[in-house]
Amino acid sequence: MKFPEKHRVQGDTGKDGAFIVQFEGRPLHIIASNGLDWDHVSVSFLNRCPNWREMCFVKDLFWDESECVVQYHPPKTKHINFHPYCLHLWKPQLMDIVLPPSIMV
User: Fold this and answer.
1) What is the pLDDT of residues 43-55, one digit of tens each?
2) 30, burial (CB in 10 Å: exposed 0-12, middle 13-18, buried 19+)
3) Measured between alpha carbons, how far is 56 from 46 in angstroms, rounded to an integer?
4) How far apart are CA 26 and CA 47, in angstroms?
5) pLDDT, tens digit (0-9, with 9 covering 90-100), for 66-80
6) Residue ranges making up the domain that contains 93
7) Which end of the chain, N or C, is less surrounded by CB atoms within 10 Å?
8) How many domains are there within the chain?
9) Alpha-carbon span 50 to 28, nearest angstrom
10) d(CA 16, CA 79)
11) What's the CATH number where 9 sits?
């Protein structure tokens, strides 16, 4: 996992942290962490959810283009929502993500 230091929120220290990145003139609010054997990035705007292009942009900021990263849709019984306009990207550190056959992707 990469951390785009030039976008780190001023005063934030440590490897994990908060970042604000401009994408097409809009500030993406990002929190990144890599504990418990997972890389995790949350991405939000103040007034709407990020779209596919914005999530792809963030994925490429924090991971290499050759890496697979997922966006989970958990069962409602396990869903926790602290921010109505936040989406998440996940990557396990100790195993590869299984993909369907390439003809299906």
Assistant:
1) 999 999 999 999 9
2) buried
3) 19
4) 11
5) 999 999 988 989 888
6) 5-104
7) C
8) 1
9) 8
10) 23
11) 3.40.1720
